[in-house]
């Protein structure tokens, strides 16, 4: 059975449908079969969830006992699109936590999430039929792109030089993607990329795609679109990891809280939240969104 979870809802509606598979017997599916799951389910991504350790027995104290109704669970996550496996997927991580929290039933849940040999923390809270989940995506590597990288990507997007804003960068969180600022939300909404050209440009520079965004308002509101033809997703309804990359990019400019609206061009409004704070070990990022179940396949 495959659960379908709508992730990163905006005011209770829309979101990105994501297939979640309880992968209790991981040897039963080949990776090629896993890549067919999102196609079969009509979703852009699928996440495969494997519980590494059983839940703690009742009465066993944990460091999080005062905040979570049950002890943290350790789970392995793998992510697939039609184009193959991904090293990380933000909205897939949120979908997995929503799936696990709903199964456990109590209100608050904490998780140790294992993705591509990295273990990090996540938390989910049930509020009626909605699950609010957030996680620490890890450190983001940022660099300034060369003009030879920017020019073909911008040309494929169809953005004129007068509509670009300064501050493009290449951000890596699992895989590299280009963050491209434009003048206004209307410019973001009007984009009509040439996907073959965009894929060729992204493949040439080792990018999974490009994330186009408008400048944040004084309240931290951003409009964005994520194009990722290189991984078989022409446009993503919601992209939490790229939003985490944007949060890291804007942190030095004093922007510490973001609410990023995506998905409108695809008829499925989505919102992702991200916050940053400085700590002794570096920049701490928290990214998340709301989710709900829509059925099974």
TrEMBL record:
Phosphoprotein recorded as keyword: no
The keyword Cell cycle is assigned to this record: no
One GO cellular component term noted in the UniProt record for this chain: cytoplasm
Alphabetical list of Gene3D superfamilies matching this protein: Diaminopimelate Epimerase, Chain A, domain 1
GO molecular function (one): isomerase activity
Keywords carried by this UniProt record: Isomerase
Homology family: Belongs to the PhzF family.
Name assigned to this protein: Epimerase
Organism: Couchioplanes caeruleus subsp. caeruleus
